Amino acid sequence: MTPKSPKSSDPSSPRDNPFRALPSVDEALRLLESALDSAQAPTHGDAPRVIPRAVLAEVVSNEMDAFRQRIGKDKLDASAVQAEIEGGQLVARLLAACAIERGRGVVSAVNATGVVLHTNLGRAPVHPEVAERMRAAAMGYCVLEMDRFSARRNERDARLGKLLSRATGAEAGIAVNNCAAAAFLMMQTFAGGREAIVSRGELVEIGGSFRVPAVMERAGVKLVEVGSTNRTRLSDYADAITDDTSLLMKVHTSNFRVVGFTEEVDAAEMARLGAERGITTGWDIGSGRLEAEGAQSLDIVGDETVLRDAVASGVDAIAFSGDKLLGGPQAGLLVGKRAAIRALRKNPIYRAMRLDKVSLAGLEATLELLAAGRGDEIPSRRLMHLSVAELTPIAERIAAALSALNGFEAKAVDSESQPGSGSAPTVFLPTKAVRVEWSGHTADDLATRLRAGEPPVFVRVQDDAVHLDPRALLPGDEDRLMKAFGALAS
Ligand SMILES: *Cc1c(COP(=O)(O)O)cnc(C)c1O
Fold first, then answer.
1. Is 10 helix (H, G, I), strand (E, B) or coil?
2. pLDDT tens per residue, range 372-387
């Protein structure tokens, strides 16, 4: 070993080796814990989110790794590292990492996008009475698979099936986890291992990688495409029928419209052809517009098929979503002829897709509200019907409050909201939005900060400005919105 030459700097000394100036993971963890003790933990809803110590240790270890990398990359010396620790920047970074950790997962958010049925934000908010029924089912035991008056075992969705029949005029109904599952179950039950005929213009992708041809393939269905993208006639279906055909199917093109020179096969004609040839007919109508007595018509969403009309067309099985236009919890609902629904129920795959007690309770309660003539109270329906006259005072109130904040400029402007979730892609609902600008910041920067803030706020960015559309705000959201902006302004 060669003796060390005397040097002014000794790399083993913390004063000169930046890496040795870093605290140990244990020391950093203690620093973080004392900082967390003195800061009040933000809450989501009612329950504070406590981060387990093992997760805190992970946060610290990740942050120290990042610090080490930065030392190498930015050539920080020991005194720069020391300054960051003593200046509190390290603790600030650890606290920020904790805030991100705590803010992940399913947390309550403010929807200022104006899109009422926003899939990324959980689609339909349920009615408080519906939420109460769901809560009661979740927290305790409930009568689920038994008729308590006869003590006989029954289907968990027997009552829901009755409510669906009453609401749509169908002979029977069942429920599965979502409409994608309902469509899959329909294809697999009626055409697994055999042929299904679908119009080329309806072989759509419905977002989230739900592509009709791919789903059919996984269901073991031999897809027979007929017609062209813009025109398909009944004769195209009729000509394609072989001995192996066991399903004639229509799929609603949800988030997509072909306009101009178009022709699609009428459901009633398809049903008649199926009945004549002894072939089951199915229709995935997606949103499913349910009209009910005492509730305003959903004609504002345009040419969505009314469920009762779909059922009256005579198609054997019709699939639609529980959390789109119906305004309930996530589910896929299937209604139609008794024999078809019985066949769906007998498929063992149905067991793998069945609904849980909480969603079932919520769907029953939602359909009961509609049946009681209280459909207009269902939040998503109410929000879609809000007029510019009703939205204007809200937009003006928010604009005034935001303009009073340091650095913000806001004004109410005419705008348009979309219903969302593939319902009526060409329909826009007139609204009054708040156009907000934050001096020194871009619109994207403001949108990002709002999303990461507390509570998280989701907005629309349009013409280089953040737009807050009050259409989808729920009770209490105006205050939460101001809290989020207040935190940015301070
Ligand atoms: C939305 C939609 C689906 C998927 O419904 P989920 O409830 O999201 O699973 C399937 N088919 C059509 C036509 C749709 O519009």
1. coil
2. 999 999 999 999 999 9
**CA distances (Å), origin 334, targets 10, 27, 172, 175, 251:** 76, 59, 8, 6, 14
Q: Is the pLDDT of residue 436 over 50?
A: yes
419 within ligand 1 shell (Cβ under 6 A)? no
CB-based contacts of 231, cutoff 8 Å, min separation 6: 201, 261, 262, 263, 264
pLDDT at residue 10 tops 70: no
Atom of ligand 1 nearest to the CA of 284: 13
How many CB atoms are located within 10 Å of the residue 194 CB? 15
Query: How many residues are listed for the chain in this entry?
Result: 490
- What angle in degrees, to the nearest 10, is found between the helix axes of 25-38 and 53-74? 120
Asked whether 384 lines ligand 1 (CB < 6 A), one says no
Nearest-CA residue for atom 7 of ligand 1: 179
Evaluate if residue 49 carries a pLDDT over 80.
Answer: no
359 ligand 1 Cβ < 6 A: no
Angle at which helix 89-103 crosses helix 25-38, to 10 degrees, equals 70
**Contact yes or no for 258/229 (Cβ under 8 A):** yes
Q: Name, in order, each residue with C-beta under 8 angstroms of 487's C-beta and a sequence gap of 6 or more.
A: 453, 454
Task: Give CA–CA dist 475/490, Å, rounded.
Answer: 25
Helices in 306-347 by DSSP H: which ranges?
307-312, 338-346
3-state SS track over 61-115 = HHHHHHHHHHHHHHCCCHHHHHHHHHCCHHHHHHHHHHHHHHHCCCCCCEECCCC
CB 336 within 8 A of CB 315: yes
Calculate how far, in angstroms, residue 269's C-alpha sits from the geometric centre of ligand 1. Answer: 24
- pLDDT tier at 41, thresholds 50, 70, 90: low
179 CB near ligand 1 (under 6 Å): yes
Predicted pLDDT at 16: 79
Cα of 319 from ligand 1 centre, angstroms: 9
Looking at the predicted structure, is the pLDDT value of residue 367 above 50?
yes
- Tracing tokens 């207040």 back to the chain, one arrives at 486
456-477 pLDDT per residue, tens: 999 999 999 999 999 999 999 9
Check whether 3 has a pLDDT greater than 80: no
Across residues 75-103, what is the average pLDDT? 92
Lowest-confidence range among 4-8, 44-48, 98-102, 309-313? 4-8
Task: Name the residue among 109, 127, 130 with its Cα closest to residue 118.
Answer: 109
Instruction: Kindly state the tokens that stand for 145.
Output: 């698979």
